[in-house]
């Protein structure tokens, strides 16, 4: 059933009001999400600025799936400019397009190479995801960015997960309007009880989350820039995927201010970025 729904949403070119998509900016259409009351915790306000978060946290909305406005330009730039640099690994590492000593974004901008720009599909940080074996290895591991670790710790603490979250691996996914991510489960981590954070920027997308079997009917959720999905316990082992990235003409909310560098605006007009942060080991957990 997952695959049928995947195909259905993949074919969708405009947002259809009757298509059973949960839209967090318009929470009227479903009983599938539960609002959750958050206890206020004291937190250093300057730290919030550093993390690109609003100082007033009282307007965070928490549902079983969560929507949080974040300082998006900061994180988008980090993904594009910094997380694509060495020692992080990219799907295009073996393509030999780069000038010696240059990184992907510098080369793209110097050469105006749109093909190279659009060939970037993922970057891995910390423990590098092995796409073939799906096994993390101590020999394929680099330092995890402190800011992304701090953001992940903050979000999981705010959501009252009992154990301190250790961000150890991340996949930064880069999507274009024709990209999809087929249904899969995330079971490579040794610690499956720690939450997995999935943070989206740029173009909106339809996210499908189903059950433990591909035969279960999935639920479709509209993910906009700034939305965060937290998958914990059971839900990590539920099939999920992205059948559709919505092109800008469908995406009324998509609007970056004029002060942002033209190169980022241009790239983000055709791109969705998803940062998927995982704790790999059991350290600090029951
Ligand atoms: O792009 C997304 O929203 C989901 C990404 C994902 O499921 C993954 O990287 O495992």
From TrEMBL:
<feature type="binding site">
    <location>
        <position position="240"/>
    </location>
    <ligand>
        <name>Fe cation</name>
    </ligand>
</feature>
<dbReference type="GO" id="GO:0035515">
    <property type="term" value="F:oxidative RNA demethylase activity"/>
</dbReference>
<keyword id="KW-0223">Dioxygenase</keyword>
<feature type="binding site">
    <location>
        <position position="186"/>
    </location>
    <ligand>
        <name>Fe cation</name>
    </ligand>
</feature>
<dbReference type="GO" id="GO:0035513">
    <property type="term" value="P:oxidative RNA demethylation"/>
</dbReference>
<dbReference type="GO" id="GO:0005634">
    <property type="term" value="C:nucleus"/>
</dbReference>
<feature type="binding site">
    <location>
        <position position="184"/>
    </location>
    <ligand>
        <name>Fe cation</name>
    </ligand>
</feature>
<dbReference type="InterPro" id="IPR037151">
    <property type="entry name" value="AlkB-like_sf"/>
</dbReference>
<keyword id="KW-0479">Metal-binding</keyword>
<protein>
    <recommendedName>
        <fullName>Fe2OG dioxygenase domain-containing protein</fullName>
    </recommendedName>
</protein>
<feature type="domain" description="Fe2OG dioxygenase">
    <location>
        <begin position="166"/>
        <end position="281"/>
    </location>
</feature>
<dbReference type="InterPro" id="IPR005123">
    <property type="entry name" value="Oxoglu/Fe-dep_dioxygenase_dom"/>
</dbReference>
<dbReference type="GO" id="GO:0005737">
    <property type="term" value="C:cytoplasm"/>
</dbReference>
<dbReference type="GO" id="GO:0008198">
    <property type="term" value="F:ferrous iron binding"/>
</dbReference>
<dbReference type="GO" id="GO:0035516">
    <property type="term" value="F:broad specificity oxidative DNA demethylase activity"/>
</dbReference>
<keyword id="KW-0408">Iron</keyword>
<dbReference type="Pfam" id="PF13532">
    <property type="entry name" value="2OG-FeII_Oxy_2"/>
</dbReference>
<keyword id="KW-0560">Oxidoreductase</keyword>
<dbReference type="InterPro" id="IPR027450">
    <property type="entry name" value="AlkB-like"/>
</dbReference>
<dbReference type="InterPro" id="IPR004574">
    <property type="entry name" value="Alkb"/>
</dbReference>
């Amino acid at each position: 059933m997952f695959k049928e729904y995947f195909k259905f949403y993949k074919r969708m070119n405009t947002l259809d009001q009757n298509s059973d998509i949960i839209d967090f900016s318009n929470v009227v259409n479903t009983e599938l999400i539960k609002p959750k009351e958050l206890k206020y915790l004291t937190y250093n306000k300057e730290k919030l600025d550093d993390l690109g978060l609003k100082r007033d946290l009282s307007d965070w909305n928490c549902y079983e799936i969560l929507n949080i406005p974040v300082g998006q330009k900061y994180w988008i730039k980090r993904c594009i400019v910094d997380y694509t640099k060495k020692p992080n690994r990219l799907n295009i590492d073996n393509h030999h397009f780069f000038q010696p000593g240059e990184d992907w974004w510098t080369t793209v901008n110097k050469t105006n190479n749109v093909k190279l720009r659009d060939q970037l599909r993922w970057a891995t940080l910390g423990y590098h995801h092995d796409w073939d074996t799906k096994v993390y290895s101590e020999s394929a591991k680099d330092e995890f960015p402190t800011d992304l670790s701090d953001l992940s710790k903050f979000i999981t603490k705010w959501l009252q997960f009992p154990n301190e979250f250790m961000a150890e691996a991340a996949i930064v996914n880069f999507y274009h309007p024709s990209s999809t991510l087929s249904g899969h489960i995330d079971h490579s981590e040794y610690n499956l009880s720690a939450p997995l954070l999935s943070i989206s920027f740029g173009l909106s997308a339809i996210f499908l989350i189903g059950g433990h079997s591909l035969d279960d009917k999935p639920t479709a959720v509209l993910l906009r820039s700034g939305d965060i999905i937290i998958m914990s316990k059971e839900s990590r082992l539920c099939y999920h995927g992205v059948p559709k990235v919505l092109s800008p003409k469908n995406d009324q909310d998509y609007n970056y201010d004029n002060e942002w560098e033209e190169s980022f605006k241009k790239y983000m007009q055709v791109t969705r970025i998803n940062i998927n942060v995982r704790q790999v080991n059991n350290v600090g957990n029951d």
